[in-house]
Amino acid sequence: MNAAPGESPPPGVRAARRAMGTRFEIFLPGADRAYLLAAAEEALEEVERLERQLSLYVSESELTGINARAAAGPVQVEPRLFALLETAAELWKETDGAFDPAAGPLVAAWGFVQGSGGLPAPEVLAAARAVSGFSLVELNPEALTVRFRTPGVQLNLGAIGKGYALDRAAELLRDAGIRSGLIHSGTSSVYGIGTPPGAMCWRVALRCPPGNVRSPPETPWAVVELVDQALSVSASHGRAFLCEGEWLGHVIDPRTGQPVRGVPAAAVLHPSGTVSDALSTALLVLGPPGVAHLAAAYPEARALLSGVPASFPTPRHGE
Asked: Does residue 311 sit within a domain?
């Protein structure tokens, strides 16, 4: 993701922090640097707190604790995290399982948890499929508990966590009186608060995925316009390995247990970063048929597929 071609951001404050395996950056336009920087740093501290709560790579994170104990019995969960899990459950249902936060064993079987991947043995993949799927997760809204129906289930919020962090950061910035700003987490998600000074929207260009033979990498495959909206992009090329002449990427179809093939990248716009993050993964899994499917389930969303004509055009401000 980049600023749209030929455009430069207005004067303001930038602050950045490394978290969730990427670089979170906040840009806030304005002249009161001390005030803006304090607001940005508070929002980034919240992102770091969420990493300590949600990351599988932090041994004492709340999510790690859930994965370790929930097969033995119900585990009580912090209210905000429980609400996130409820949202994830709804997204799993609405996408017919194309987004599945309990597909962690499949990702691990393909070697994508801490590596660039590898072909799993058939028995390893079969064992992973047996303990994957949100149908094996029980949420109790009265007690705020999570329980796994069988040992080996693992929650992995990697396909929703960055978008959730953007939502929380945007919420804190608005609470601090910020009415204009741009927050992004690497190249996967961005959230535009309000509009830039003197403009009607934040314009973000999506670069062509690697290997695109139709256009050079510097050519955007879409330019989107954000006003109090999030944009999330999912692609398989980030981590991949070569198998029998084909590159297999880290996005796994939870329904088949196989890496996603066909569409280079998928993007979704939505007022919620949490929703857009999950839906972009689901759209990459579903491919072109997913555009109409997501339109019916999430009428506020807009979907874009790299290299594939989508029934939702890039939205223009005011639509």
From this structure: no
- Max CA separation in the chain (angstroms): 60
Residue 39 forms part of a structural domain: yes
- Contact partners, residue 253, CB within 8 Å, separation at least 6: 98, 259, 260, 285
Q: Is residue 313 part of a domain?
A: no
Q: Of 94, 114, 148, which residue constitutes the final position of a domain?
A: 148
Q: What is the pTM of this model?
A: 0.89
What's residue 200's pLDDT? 95
Q: What is the C-alpha separation between 44 and 39, in angstroms, rounded?
A: 9
Are 55 and 63 contacting, i.e. CB atoms less than 8 angstroms apart?
yes
Per DSSP, the residues of 282-304 read HHHHH-THHHHHHHHH-TT-EEE
Shared domain for 95 and 172, answered yes or no, is no
Q: Note the pLDDT tens digit of each residue in 5-19.
A: 556 666 899 999 999
- In the chain, how many domains are there? 2
Which of 287, 291, 294 shows the shortest CA–CA distance to 310?
Answer: 291
Where does residue 56 fall: left (phi above 0), alpha (psi -120 to 50 degrees), or beta otherwise?
A: alpha
Tell me if 317 is assigned to some domain.
no
Q: pLDDT for 42-80, tens place per residue?
A: 999 999 999 999 998 899 999 999 999 999 999 999 999
Same domain assignment for residues 168 and 265: yes
DSSP code, position 118: -
Question: Do 263 and 296 belong to one domain?
Answer: yes
Residue 254: exposed, middle, or buried by beta-carbon count in 10 A (0-12, 13-18, 19+)?
A: buried
Domain that holds residue 268: 2-50+160-305
Residue 83 sits at φ, ψ, to 5 deg, of: -60, -40
CA dihedral sign of residues 267, 268, 269, 273: negative
**Domain check: are 274 and 176 in the same one?**
yes
Measured CA angle at 137 (ends 136, 141), to 5 deg: 150
